Amino acid sequence: MNVLITGGAGFIGSNLAHRLMAEGHKVIVYDNLSRLGAEKNAAWLHSEHGDRWTLLQADVRDFEALRRAAADADVIYHLASQVAVTTSVQDPRHDFEVNALGTFNVLEAARLSGRNPIVVYASTNKVYGGMEEAAVVEGEASYAYCEYPYGIPETYPLDFHSPYGCSKGTGDQYVRDYARIYGLPTVVFRQSCIYGPRQFGVEDQGWVAWFLIAAVTGRPITIYGDGKQVRDVLWVDDLIDLYQRAVDRIDVAAGQVYNVGGGPENRLAVWSELGPMLATLLGREIQVARNQWRPGDQRIFVADIRKAEQELDWRPKTRREEGVRRLYEWVVANKPLFG
Fold first, then answer.
1. What pTM was estimated for this model as a whole?
2. Residue of 36, 43, 102 whose CA lies nearest to 18
3. pLDDT in tens, 188-231
4. Which one of 14, 32, 104, 218 is least enclosed by Cβ atoms within 10 Å?
């Protein structure tokens, strides 16, 4: 197939491009290379696949460039995004233009191509906002839901919180509606915490990778809140499996929204549980600084992944302990990348 990946030099995008090229698909990576690590990921793709793919260095805000890139696409994976809540608060216009307008541009490029391509959109659990209505109980090492033993379902009320939540939520709803109004086969994945190799995590985004990179390279780590916040972590290869299941079963997935994460079996407290795991891997204790809670930081988010399980026959394969160990080994083996 002809595949277009916006944000294809990013963490998820480069792993997806690598998988698709290995399977023989023709891939266009559309990326402005502004993200930390994007140029390194593009260089890695060249080292792995030579010139058997196309890199278009362009921005999703550039509609004409995007329209040309999408002209022959059978599948478009829209992963390009401004990804940090903190950045969105500092510069909400940029956040809106990249996430909301950029997603609209992708949909229009797909619609106007006349090919009716599949569009897969990477949304976020932040569309559910602070989730104050979801009662939470505090345990010794982590938080837990009182009423959602399987995690948060797709039917949970939307509540866009922060400019980032608003811009990604706008894209989320546009992608859904283009399936209803124009018959475009679109799929929305409201993603939780994705982690894995090629992830150049920073303090306000990609926390699992950031903690590993900081611990290995001796950079200071700050824990915001009490460190017992919980996320359900999902290994990147498992996410890509789900993307491909959706494309293969587009007759079922078209127009649908799926909450995506590691599920209850892969819930992980950001420091009270991850910290000891890292200390074991490093063979030493890790010193951290403490600071107050950040605005909008959910005490817990765990995705109810039963809809994806039932409709797309998918389940995560990589348990959290194995994933953390594999990412640690990748960071250690590639330490010069983080200099």
1. 0.97
2. 43
3. 999 999 999 999 999 888 999 999 999 999 999 999 999 999 99
4. 218
